[in-house]
Amino acid sequence: MRADSRLARLGLWLRAHQGQIRALQWLVVAIYLVLLILPALLPLPPAQASLLDSLNGIAQMLFWGLWWPGVILSVLLFGRLWCGLLCPEGMLSEWASQCGRGRRAPDWLRWPGWPLLAFVLTTVYGQLLSVYQYPRPALLILGGSTVAAMAVGYAYARNKRIWCRYLCPVSGVFGLLARLAPLHYAVDRAAWDAPPSRKVIAINCAPLIDIRRMDSASQCHQCGRCAGQRDAVQWAWRQPGQEIITLRPEQTRGWEVALLLYGLIGTAGGAFLWSSSTLLLQAKQGLAGWLIEHEQALWLLDDTAPWWLLTHYPQLNDSFSWLDGALILAYIALAALALGSWAWAWLAAAARLLQHDWRARQRQLAYCLTPLAGLTLLLGLSLTSFSQLRGLGLALNWRGWLQGGLLLAGLLWSLQLAWAQLAGLPRRRRALLLYAPAPIGIALVWLGLLFGA
Ligand code: SF4
Q1: Which of 13, 295, 320, 389 is the most buried (most CB within 10 A)?
Q2: What Pfam families does the record point to (predicted)?
Q3: 10 Å Cβ neighbour count for 32?
Q4: How far is 81 from 86, CA to CA, in rounded Å?
Q5: Alpha carbon nearest to ligand 1 atom 6, residue
Q6: Nearest C-alpha neighbor of 115 from the set 225, 224, 207
Q7: Ligand 1 mutation target, pool 78, 80, 85, 226, most atoms within 8 A of CB
């Protein structure tokens, strides 16, 4: 395989410049630690202060307004390049594993449900602590995750990223979104198996991929270390979403589908929806009124829980009561169940129409919802970015067009992937009609959130 494209040559360049990449990673680690730790040590700015008036506000803008939406967008565009080249947590975990115990990763750690569980727990916990607004919750959640990543790196394997492969709360989400990306490391199996024309130098694939058999960008961190290996691996373009169109039943994973439906679409959707829900507000007012009137369980209205359990900033008039916390939990759980099960039911109906043994087909079709799930995640994170920009006095008249356009793009892309995936099957049109309510229903919920319809 000749490196006959610019991209392939860039892959070889990355392989040859791992030292510089490592230096860049240390720089990102330094910026990350400053933005994470310093604001948590400083007093909170007053409620009316501009975001640009304090390190707190600047860190908040960089982390939640720029960094996270930027990372999600980068995974959709470039695959997990972020993980391989810039992620401070992955880098620190691999660094810790260089000088660690090097033990074999135990079976419990390889449980495939961790990405779903970790994503749901961190998302919900973040909402209870108002992680987008305050620095101490950010330090606790992001910093805690980094410390855990280093501890796992220190304990297990040598020069690897066990944390990223099995435990990172966003690794499963990134793995899903990377399947859509137009960039991947393509492996020519025949060239790999052929006798090498020159000495083969062993490489270290930190996320433990069997490169010879790699046929998905899902787990690849796009670090470039294997570019040109045995003249069989090169960085290459592909049609966006091609991996999902050609997905085979044995390439689907039940836990990954559960993460997509009940985590990315359901839990993340509920987490973005609750703060603007009039239903939740009415439920809270009704319940609080009932408790006061009947003098029952008045402790539920107490808002003195510590900040690491529930949002507690009385000086800014922003504290959650136990009732607030319970209702937020209930709302997110119900939204996750409703959105996930809505999609699951329509996918099942479409799959049953196509074949008797329908479960594998249902999983294949579920992956077609990835564009809508990814773009709604981006939309949800951008709500914070836009509210920050509005707080700086920017008009943002184009905001609705951008958000509506992204939502429509996610919906159409999800429909197109399913149509392409079903090519050649009998009853294709009817199956698409049964599949379509899944993405359309999710898009309508988001339309309501974005435009108050
Ligand atoms: S397969 Fe492994 S070594 Fe190759 S680019 Fe992906 S993460 Fe890096």
Answers
A1: 320
A2: Fer4_5
A3: 22
A4: 8
A5: 220
A6: 207
A7: 226
pLDDT of 2:
55
Instruction: Return the number of other C-beta atoms located less than 10 Å from residue 305's C-beta.
Output: 17
Q: How many CB atoms lie within 10 A of CB 356?
A: 6
Ligand 1 centroid, distance to 15 Cα (angstroms): 10
Residues 334 and 270 sit within 8 Å (Cβ to Cβ): yes
* Domain co-membership, 171 together with 51: yes
pLDDT at 375: 97
DSSP assignment letter at 357: S
Structural domain includes residue 18: yes
pLDDT tens, 352-370?
Answer: 999 988 999 999 999 999 9
Domain that holds residue 80: 6-109+130-177
Q: d(Cα 12, Cα 8) in Å, to the nearest integer?
A: 6
- Dist. CA 214 → ligand 1 center (Å): 9
Q: Are 222 and 74 in contact (CB under 8 A)?
A: no
Residue 40 lies in a domain: yes
Ranges of residues in the chain with a pLDDT under 70 are: 1-4, 453
369 lines ligand 1 (CB under 6 A): no
Which pLDDT belongs to residue 50? 84
* Residue 206: other Cβ atoms inside 10 A: 23
Give the model confidence (pLDDT) of 329-356 as tens digits. Answer: 999 999 999 999 999 999 999 999 999 8
Shared-domain flag, residues 20 and 136: yes
> Which residue has the CA at smallest separation from atom 3 of ligand 1?
205
Closest CA to 319 of 327, 332, 310: 310
- Check pocket membership of 222 for ligand 1, CB cut-off 6 A: yes
Instruction: Judge if 170 and 258 occupy the same domain.
Output: no
- For ligand 1, is residue 185 a contact (CB within 6 Å)? yes
Choice from 192, 215, 225 to test ligand 1 binding pocket (greatest atom count within 8 A of CB): 225
162 and 253 share one domain = no
Q: Per the domain annotation, does 28 fall within a domain?
A: yes
Kindly report the protein residue whose alpha carbon is nearest to atom 8 of ligand 1: 223
Whether residue 205 has its Cβ less than 6 Å from ligand 1:
yes
Unique residue bearing structure tokens 């490169």: 211
Residue 72: both structure tokens together: 């999600």
